[in-house]
Amino acid sequence: MLVISCGTYSMEGAKGISPDELAILETKIEGCSDCIYVSDIDGKSRGYGYYKTYELIPGERSITVYGNSQLGFAKNATDIVFNAEAGKIYYLNLVSANNGYWIASINDKQTKKQVDHEQHSLNCKLSLLGGWKCKR
Fold it and tell me: End-to-end distance of the chain based on CA atoms, in angstroms?
């Protein structure tokens, strides 16, 4: 079963925590256009469906992003690591690179400054039964 949603995803352990005690990550969902989307949080799949907002427990978080290039080719997944602070709102920033691929970063919504401090490219393979499997 495929669930399509543009709602909010709460990472494991975030449900029931007061919203002002969580960090929020916002993304852009624009249909089937070129996009990068969140596939995992701290190495755990967030499942199927489209989510525009992610509720995160404060602390160092690893957000795995995967997506398409402007040319329509798949790009290997990337882990983006940042320190999520309670009460702050972040957004997944997309920049087009000269080679036709997107580059992602995580930025503070208020200051617009990039806050991620590490990025790691992952080697991923598509399995017909298991979806994408990435080596960390």
Answer: 28
Contact 23, 90 (CB under 8 A): yes
91-108 residue pLDDT tens: 998 776 666 667 788 999
The rounded Cα 19 to chain-centroid distance in angstroms is 19
d(Cα 92, Cα 103) in Å, to the nearest integer? 10
Q: Which two three-digit tokens encode residue 25?
A: 């990550």
pLDDT category at 116 given cuts 50, 70, 90 is very high
Q: Could you give the C-alpha distances from 79 to 19, 25, 59, 107, 118, in angstroms and in order?
A: 25, 15, 16, 15, 8
> Token pair for residue 84?
């999520």
Residue that the structure tokens 């790009």 belong to: 75
In the block, residue with structure tokens 């916002």: 26
Q: Which of 40, 38, 69, 62 is nearest to 52 (CA)?
A: 38
d(Cα 28, Cα 108) in Å, to the nearest integer? 15
